[in-house]
Write a sequence for this structure.
């Protein structure tokens, strides 16, 4: 039996430590992982917990991330609670198996520390890996600070394992900006955290040899479409469960999470849509802008998938201009947040002026001052009643100004 | 918000020092951020670590800051002009050196006219801890210069934070902290 870990009411943890403790408290049956910067400490801390007697489950060291996710698939199909951690190139190497995990409806939890994708090689934070996994059929939760990295990881198990969902979940935190930044975290005691998640309920476990089942069967044109449609349906209907879990979490901790987070949006005339730690930096910018009389608010999808289209459109129905800020190289298009938000507005007959900004690639700093400039540009569009700024701009990029129209 | 920037070489314990200071201050009810700017460098490469301390939750995740204090824990980095980047006339520098302040400033001209305190944190850590890990003596010097919390409260917290280490290491660090508290000038 795992030993109880003595936790203070307030700990000073970085995002990695916060995620490690959440995995430990979930009493995961199998963690299979291949460490990679900047998520390495999650795996390292977890191995230390195991060595010190705080974990009962198995820790499997594998030879690559492809193997890590493959071992996770095997263990989850066998009927255990399963988790791992990765970043960037490791995430990329897992991609094939990410689709297997979601297609087999395996409720694996993966704590992702977001990092840029090579080339050129870079160990710092951006959303390249998150966007790479966008269509893999996983639920993607976003955490903006170490407290949220802890909270989202606890919630992830409860969402993934609900019998109405049974889908894998990632919890995302920005590399270094969250993963290596120590802040005050108020953890739950071990027994409280475990009770919140609950015991693991196996569904169709392969180790139940009296009831043999097949995972990963071949389906051609006669059944493949129905499988994928039913998988998509589970993802599209998961908000019911996500809302229930967030509500239960609020009752337990007082910390309220929403699938769509907003800041000062109620009376706003312009809005920024932004995801990750920069959402909090943007709060500082919004406060400064409001001191100057600019009515601006913020919006963030807490669930990048399933993407809360209609809720976002509803929250943005009164704004005149919106800037969507993507922390990812868009490579031949507008950023994903721009596209998703534009689609959400169009689907609801709304016509706020949309612009896109790319920022923070490979850990490039974004300050409240930078975001304040974006707010002022967006205000120009609202005042003109049409787009007078560039369609796609780049924040804190060196060299001559780059933009696309 | 109080902002502190550490200059160190990777492996000298600036990250641990920054996190320990954040932990100490969090115990007084403050909100904190402790982080560092990493490259892909190896042990020995120059690096910076940061503390932000405030009465309300710290939302700004940008790396940029105008430090109130600059703590230099490697004696060779004192001579790098980068240590004065983004500082103001009010920024206080606490630097590690075996030289006295006048001799140091005659060479490190970028520190002339600045508020500078000197402590030989390398020598203290070698003599008291047995290794050149100058982070904890720098904390002792910082507490003296800043007066941010009573020294006894600091010692109580830091002893608890160090409690995972063997008694010998804890005692060495406490001696180093106390000596630096007395010797910084």
């Amino acid at each position: 039996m795992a030993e109880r870990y003595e936790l203070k009411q307030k700990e000073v943890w970085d995002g990695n430590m916060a995620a490690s403790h959440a995995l430990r408290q979930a009493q995961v049956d199998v963690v299979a992982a291949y460490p990679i910067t900047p998520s390495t400490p999650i795996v390292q801390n977890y191995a230390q917990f195991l060595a010190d007697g705080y974990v009962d489950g198995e820790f499997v060291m594998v030879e690559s991330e492809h193997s890590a996710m493959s071992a996770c698939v095997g263990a989850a199909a066998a009927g255990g609670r399963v988790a791992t951690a990765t970043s960037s190139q490791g995430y990329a190497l897992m991609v094939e198996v990410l689709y297997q995990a979601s297609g087999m409806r395996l409720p694996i939890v993966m704590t992702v520390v977001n990092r840029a994708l090579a080339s050129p090689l870079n160990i710092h934070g951006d959303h390249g890996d998150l966007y790479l996994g966008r269509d893999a059929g996983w639920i993607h939760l976003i955490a903006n600070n170490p407290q949220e990295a802890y909270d989202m990881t606890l919630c992830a198990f409860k969402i993934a394992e609900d019998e109405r969902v049974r889908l894998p979940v990632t919890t995302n935190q920005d590399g270094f900006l969250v993963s290596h930044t120590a802040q005050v975290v108020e953890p739950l005691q071990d027994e409280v955290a475990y009770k919140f998640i609950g015991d693991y309920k196996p569904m169709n476990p392969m180790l139940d040899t009296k009831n043999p089942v097949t995972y990963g069967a071949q389906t051609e044109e006669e059944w493949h479409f129905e499988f994928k449609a039913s998988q998509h349906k589970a993802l599209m209907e998961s908000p019911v469960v996500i809302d229930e879990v967030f509500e239960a979490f609020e009752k337990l901790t007082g910390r309220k999470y929403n699938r769509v987070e907003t800041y000062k949006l109620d009376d706003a005339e312009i809005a920024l849509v932004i995801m990750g730690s920069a959402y909090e930096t943007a709060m500082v910018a919004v406060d400064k802008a409001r001191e100057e009389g600019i009515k601006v608010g913020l919006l963030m999808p807490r669930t990048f998938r399933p993407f809360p289209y209609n809720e976002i459109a509803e929250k943005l129905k009164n704004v005149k201009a919106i800037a969507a800020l993507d922390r990812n190289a868009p490579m031949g298009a507008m950023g994903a947040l721009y596209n998703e938000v534009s689609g959400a507005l169009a689907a609801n007959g709304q016509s706020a002026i949309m612009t896109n900004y790319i920022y923070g690639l490979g850990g490039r700093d974004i300050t409240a001052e930078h975001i304040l400039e974006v707010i002022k540009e967006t205000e120009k569009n609202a005042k003109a009643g049409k787009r007078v700024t560039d369609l796609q701009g780049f924040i804190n990029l060196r060299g001559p100004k780059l933009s696309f129209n | 918000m109080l902002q502190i920037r550490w200059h160190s070489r990777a492996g000298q314990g600036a990250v641990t020092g920054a996190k320990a200071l954040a932990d100490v201050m969090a115990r007084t009810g403050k909100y904190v951020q402790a982080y560092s700017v990493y490259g892909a460098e190896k042990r020995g490469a120059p690096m910076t670590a940061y503390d932000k301390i405030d009465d309300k939750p710290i939302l700004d995740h940008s790396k940029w800051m105008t430090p109130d204090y600059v703590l230099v824990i490697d004696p060779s980095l004192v001579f790098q002009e980068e240590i004065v980047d983004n500082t103001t006339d009010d920024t206080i520098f606490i630097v590690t050196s075996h030289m006295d302040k006048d001799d140091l400033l005659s060479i490190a001209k970028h520190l002339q006219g600045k508020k500078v305190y000197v402590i030989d944190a390398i020598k203290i850590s070698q003599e008291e801890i047995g290794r050149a890990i100058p982070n904890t003596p720098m904390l002792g010097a910082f507490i003296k210069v800043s007066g941010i919390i009573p020294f006894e409260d600091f010692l109580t917290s830091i002893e608890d934070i160090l409690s995972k280490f063997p008694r010998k290491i804890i005692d060495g660090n406490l001696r180093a902290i106390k000596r630096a508290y007395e010797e910084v000038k």
About this structure: Chain A touches chain B through 27 residues (CB under 8 Å). The CA atoms of residues 88 and 129 of chain A lie 5 Å apart. The domain at 11-199+220-253 of chain A is CATH 3.40.50.970 (Rossmann fold).
